[in-house]
Design goal:
- The structure is a single chain.
- The chain has a single domain, classed as Dihydrodipicolinate Reductase, domain 2 (2-Layer Sandwich).
- The mean pLDDT is about 95.
- The relative contact order is 0.21.
- The protein has a nine-stranded mixed beta sheet with strand order 8-7-6-5-1-4-3-2-9.
- Helix 4 crosses helix 9 and helix 7 crosses helix 8.
- It has about 280 residues and is α+β, with helices and mostly antiparallel strands.
Length: about 280
Amino acid sequence: RDIMAVLNMVRQNVFGELLYAHCGYQHDLREVKFEPGVEFGDKGVHEAHWRTWHSVYQNGDIYPTHGLGPVAVMMNINRGNRFLSLTSSATKTRGLHKYIVDKAGPDHPNAKVRFRLGDIVTSTITTVNGENIVVIHDTNNPRPYSLGFRIQGTQGLWMDDGDQVYVEGISSPHRWDKADEWLKKYDHPLWKKYEHLAEGAGHGGMDFFVINAFVEIIRRQAPAPLDAYDAAAWSAVTPLSEASIAAGGAPQEFPDFTNGQWMVRKPVFALDDTY
């Protein structure tokens, strides 16, 4: 709901012309990657059966879409704007090995596993319209959950961590506002209309809106709010970040999955309270 309110603020030009965004997936997944105990793969259960292998074999941002999707919508990616290039770097890998040793000792067989995934992967994306987007992947060490959103323009910014907003000419100079009042004021029309139906739906009500939009676009034969071009652009961060890290941080160009159509495609995601 906060993201949708911020999208509404962006579209009403509260922050001015957008310049920069920060996002990512910052979530301590050690107990997810190892279960039971410090087991994974064939001896693992639930997500540990498959998810941990990505940390063994890949070094890049292996889950960019969670944070990048909302930012891409705010910046009209594939609809008047597009990702241009990416550079990535990764820290050393320490967290998963330390977790195994701390939990099961240095003689456990999994203490010999060599993980490739850097503990913190940082990618910087440039866009055709001149914005920068920083995307973080951070899942191997102790930390509270955060997607680390920051949306900044020529007039002000919103930061998820700390629930802070600053808008020049309205906020007290050099002092943050608490985001709550701003988010209430700019609550998205979809939430206002469907809040009672979204109660109890998964992911804090978000699942309702996904299913509702899917049903409505079929009924109306309307364009999908998010489509295969969006999925391709967001997901491309994974292989491009791997390539950039392997090349010492060299820039990697994004393919134009729309074959030039990004220049004429119009935003369709959550334009009003329809779906």
